[in-house]
Design goal:
Helix content is 19%, strand content 43%. By secondary structure, it is α+β, with helices and mostly antiparallel strands. It is globular.
Length: 152
Amino acid sequence: MNQPINVHGTAIVLGETGVLLRGPSGSGKSLLALCLLDRWEARGLPAFLVADDRVEITEANGHLKMQAPRTIAGLIELRGRGIIQRPYRDGVRLGLIVDLVPELVRMPEADALQTELAGITLPRAPVPDSRTIGVDHQMLLVAAAISALMGQ
């Protein structure tokens, strides 16, 4: 992939894991990202915004890297408040895709826990959107997916 692809989503880095949250407008990507950032920071762990709304994805050495388009770097929408600033990082390796989905599957099949982006297979966490479950449950699902990546 020579040209970056522009993806609708929100990207963050939690500890060492780059996370891309995907879902339709209004599904709660930005709110979930802000809550996850706060949770990691409260535990004294590194947590940074990469991009909100639009994420540029590039391939480097068989891995995908994420960054914000220059005009929105460090900015994220908090509905009810507007656009706020957060510390951000660029060139973060994508390690997990979180897809906000419309329903809760009690026991997802193994094939639902991976996806492909730009020809590269990545771990996936299907997480019900904000209309289906609360943000606390969403955060637990993302944290469990990251722990599984770390072999914990």
